[in-house]
Write a structure and sequence with these properties.
With 313 residues, this protein is α/β, with parallel strands linked by helices. The chain contains six helices and 14 strands. Bound molecules: flavin-adenine dinucleotide (FAD).
Length: 313
């Protein structure tokens, strides 16, 4: 995903880890605090709001943005990695407290071993995060446009949310913020049975947990999503060379350059939101759009990470 933050009307602040909770084998919850977060805010509900963390490189210093101006991103990229650290994307799982005691809650996945090398800087940092550690947050400032919320069901009467563990914080945020009379299903694939969480959701939304417990990544969420759409089970073959790690196809934006605006308006009552590993999401997109004929304007397909690829911003 391309970073497009032209100015500093957003928050770009060093924050402190105020609380660390190991939620389950695959998740660490962090509460990040700073008096600067008094200005953290969005217009409406948080839903699947994304933010960035800028993490230190190994045991290196916390990247500094002191004196940053509108050129901060280009300037940051020019610095050596030991100094600039690593920028990674996460979801606002929650915001607690208020004023100078506002805390940003983030749930970070501790990577499973897919035989693709060591865990990345984000996962490694989260695994050893301790109270008092510091990191930089790039997040929306109240009253300033930031973007980063993709969930946009319009008038759709039914919802299907589908994702893997990296999408769980976003799905949890969407479910929490939905209107009470919302109707639909959320299918969530997680590494292990012990990763299942209590979620707040409207009574009309069915939450289906799919612990992999050793099954191939994405196999369960794909089968469940296809079944929920009333289709017969399908095999999807996606070649590694056919996967765009930055796959991002929403009603508002197409990473492949498809003309979204020119397509027809919603023809069905269903809105589908899918996020997770890019190859898995590519396969689901193929089935939903090509085989089942879902209108592109009813579906958001988002590659949140890619096996074997470092999602450097
Ligand atoms: C909009 C958006 C919201 C996101 N929200 C969250 C969130 O709330 N919580 C969260 O944990 N992640 C979230 N992600 C995913 C997260 O950005 C990626 O998993 C990211 O790659 C993690 O960075 P890293 O430094 O740990 O690994 P990278 O340096 O990107 O990758 C290094 C290696 O780790 C592997 N890897 C990366 N991610 C995973 C994974 N999840 N499981 C197993 N192996 C992996 C890759 O295969 C690669 O070989 C989100 C992504 C997007 C785009």
């Amino acid at each position: 995903m391309t970073v497009t933050f032209p100015d500093l009307r957003l928050l770009l602040e060093e924050v402190e880890v105020c609380r660390v909770e190991r939620l389950s084998p695959s998740f660490v919850r962090l509460e990040l605090g700073s008096p600067a977060l008094a200005e953290l805010g969005v217009e409406g509900p948080w839903l699947d709001q994304r933010i960035k963390l800028v993490l230190p490189h190994g045991d290196g210093p916390v990247p500094s943005f002191v004196g940053a101006d509108g050129t901060w991103y280009a300037t940051w990229l020019e610095r050596p990695v030991e100094e600039r650290g690593h920028m990674r994307t996460y979801t606002v799982r929650d915001v607690v407290g208020s004023g100078a005691d506002t805390r940003l809650v983030i749930d970070i996945v501790l990577h499973e071993d897919h035989g693709d090398g060591p865990a990345g800087p984000g996962s490694s940092w989260a695994a050893r995060a301790a109270v008092g550690d510091r990191v930089v947050v790039l997040a929306p400032r109240r009253g300033a446009a930031y973007g980063g919320i993709e969930f946009a069901p319009g008038e759709a009467g039914r919802l299907l949310l589908a994702g893997d563990e990296t999408a769980l914080p976003a799905i949890a945020g969407i479910l929490r913020d939905l209107p009470h009379d919302a109707v639909g299903t959320a299918v969530v694939e997680v590494p292990l049975s012990d990763d299942v969480q209590e979620l707040v959701a409207p009574v009309g939304v069915d939450v289906v947990w799919l612990p992999r417990d050793g099954a191939p990544l994405g196999s369960l969420v794909r089968a469940a999503a296809v079944e929920r759409l009333g289709a017969a089970p399908v095999q999807v073959e996606v070649g590694d060379d056919e996967v765009d790690p930055d796959l991002w196809e929403t009603p508002a934006y197409s990473s492949s350059g498809e003309d979204v605006a020119g397509e027809q308006a919603h023809t069905d009552d269903l809105y589908v939101w899918i996020a997770g590993e890019s190859k898995v999401v590519t396969g689901l997109r193929r089935v939903l759009v090509n085989d089942l004929g879902l209108d592109r304007r009813q579906v958001a397909f988002m590659g949140y990470w890619r096996v074997g690829v470092s999602m450097a911003s």
